[in-house]
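Working notes for the structural subgroup meeting. M.R. asked for a predicted model of this chain before we commit to crystallization trials. I am recording the input and output together here so anyone reviewing the notebook later can reproduce the run.

Input as submitted:
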Amino acid sequence: MLIINWFSSNSEFYLSMIIRLALACLLGGFIGFEREHVHRPAGFRTHILVCVGSALVMITSEYIYYHFSSHVNTDPARLGAQVISGIGFLGAGTIIKEGISVKGLTTAASLWAVSCVGIAIGIGFYSGAFIATAFIFLTLVVAKKTQSRRTVKKSLRLYVHTQIKKGEVNKLSMIIQEMGAVIKKTDFISSERDGEMVIRFTLDSSMEVSIAEIIEAILCNDAVRRVYEEI
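Returned structure, recorded in token form:
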């Protein structure tokens, strides 16, 4: 009976808490769905958990402030600040380094941004949370499409089949750069043949040297078995 009376006397607070956590789940899932759709390591569930957890931290901060501020000096922003700085460990887990290319930075940034959305919802700043979610989503979807179009126009891809040897990637990169080309990205693609690896070099197309000259220079390397440009 005491528990029922306690809940009824605090019904407004708990209704607000449920609404905030539900919104955090909705907005975090909205961003997470986009990340999972493009097969990123942190997807739907991860973004929901980050957003809901961040919202709960701020709800807890608000609860502590209203119930204990008369007894001790409390700062309602202290716990939220810990979330903003602490979420970095989770973002770091999504970053993968492959050769000289790095993947996962955008997903790490989206996790950090979603934690900030959760903090805004948790303290009741709904308009800021919704506007930020819209901008985050537009950045992930629209900006990515625009960037992809620009990359296609300004880049060309060169595939090199070569023997698996220590320092081979750096050696090939130096050959390409010495020819006057700019390497924008390097990717590794698994090969069906044993002892062979396939390296994909994404080059800036605005170069004076021709692709044929670059291919000829690469083929001078004894370890290289095949070179071709993506059509």
